[in-house]
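thread: overnight batch results

M.L. [08:02]
morning all. the overnight job finished for the chain we discussed friday. pasting input first so we're all looking at the same thing
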Amino acid sequence: YVEDVNLYIFDNSGYRLRNYSITEVADGGIQINLNQDEYTLITVANMKEQTHVLVATNNQREDFFLQHPDWKQPGDVVEGHDHNYIGEVKITVTSDGIERRDTVSLRSAHINMDIQIEGLPAPAARADEIPYTLRIEQCHARTNFYNELTALGQETVQPRLTYDAEKKIYHTTDLALFRLDQNGVVTRETCPHQVVLLDADGTELVRYNLYDYLQRFANQIDVTRQEATVPLAIQFSQLGVEIVLPGWNIEDVNPDWG
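M.L. [08:03]
and the structure it wrote out:
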């Protein structure tokens, strides 16, 4: 579901002329009057509490970035990201005064993650007092208005964990990160993320490279597709700990999470 849409208009040189905030786009769209010229329209959707648009220097398109409002410098900790989408359309306004209608196609600027932890003791008291901390380190802190990752800093994402007493698992809810690929290619540079689990004393129980996990399950998980989800289970047993696909995701055929 898409809402909280913002429209940015850039001229032929890439300079931002104006932008509109639209809380909910109606079926009829919006009407914009522009002078004769060529323009690029950029839409950013689902700009909620976890989205901030940073304009770096000169009001050019390459100076616009999406980031978490709490991120200020490399290593800062945030809870997660909104499920952002970015779209683009180029238009030419002629002198004939003819009204034209354009549609902007949105592409996801995020990746969904579904992490569950099995085999650990239940919370001693209330279920909302979670004795473990899940962190995803070395995440990309920004994406630009070309829907590309940037090398301008990393962040640590620390999502809230919930305990499911019936299933006896800890799990994330509605967790999103910026994409793990660059132009459809996943490498160690685009996916340096480390999945880390700590106990109540801050002792590190698990540290695992997300890129290695994606390589292990490349036939089941394709993060280059739209609306892709990365399901991941941390399983504790008497034999140790394993990082595997969640059991409820295993099918007789390759499931499509891409």
